[in-house]
Amino acid sequence: MRAVELHSSIGPAETASVRPPASEKLVRGVAISEPRINDRIRVPEVRLVGPGGEQVGVVKVEVALRLAQEADLDLVEVAPNSKPPVVKIMDYGKFKYEAAQKAKEARRNQANTVLKEVRFRLKIDSHDYETKRKRAENFLKAGDKVKAMILFRGREQSRPEMGVRLLQRFAEDVAELGIVENKPTIDGRNMTMIIAPVKNKSEAKAEQNAARAEAKAVRQGRADDGDTADAAGE
After folding, report:
1. In whole angstroms, what is the distance from residue 91 CA to residue 74 CA?
2. Burial of 20 (0-12, 13-18, 19+ CB in 10 A)
3. Please, are residues 184 and 163 in contact by the beta-carbon 8 Å criterion?
4. InterPro entries of this UniProt entry (predicted)?
5. Tens digits of residue pLDDT in 78-119
6. DSSP characters over 53-106
């Protein structure tokens, strides 16, 4: 196996001290780092995450490479600074394509996103509040951000906590459609809060689960580092 030969040609000391930089490519004059993949991952051991996000544990890099090849997938380094580095088995070509599509979609959404404003009085009646809530929900459904603003009058400026409570209530009432992007802040005689539309629930959940799996692997790696350091100190 080519990956094994490359690994075996590097001594243990050299492996531990020499970490070749991730490859870079220029996109519009800006260097973009890409993760190491497959036989470019030149370390003795790695913390392996399976294709479904399952935690395999710390294994020799040759084992991780073999498992990736048997699954007809790639081995991708996702947390190079952990000790040992965290790697994941995945279809790297598909991953890059989907990442590019998401970035493109995000840029398009950002360009098309409009900031809609909904104004409240601190002493607002229930009917007026419901009207403004429904208007905000329609904005969020259309993919627009909502700027909720409270207009303070007279002595109301001395009671900012009441404004915070009103905006928090509003955020909770529209939570299924939007998330707080900017928390309540004072802007002159006004208090504002920005709410952004949420992603598709299934997409957001899938991304969240993947991120949690990788974060868990990174945390486990750091915990193991701490245990090793404690043992060395003893």
Report:
1. 6
2. exposed
3. yes
4. T_IF-3_C_sf, T_IF-3_N_sf, Translation_initiation_fac3_CS, Translation_initiation_fac_3, Translation_initiation_fac_3_C, Translation_initiation_fac_3_N
5. 988 888 999 999 999 998 898 888 888 777 766 666 789 999
6. S-EEEEEEHHHHHHHHHHTT-EEEEEETTSSSPEEEEE-HHHHHHHHHHHHHHH
Report whether pLDDT(143) > 80. yes
Q: Which residues of 161-171 are buried (b: 16+ CB within 10 A; e: fewer)?
A: eebbebbeebb
**pTM of the full predicted structure?**
0.41
pLDDT at 132 over 60: yes
- Give the helix/strand (H/E) hosting 190: strand 190-197
- All domains of the chain in start order, with CATH: 1-93 (3.10.20.80), 112-197 (3.30.110.10)
- Would you say 60 and 45 are in contact if contact means Cβ atoms under 8 Å apart? yes
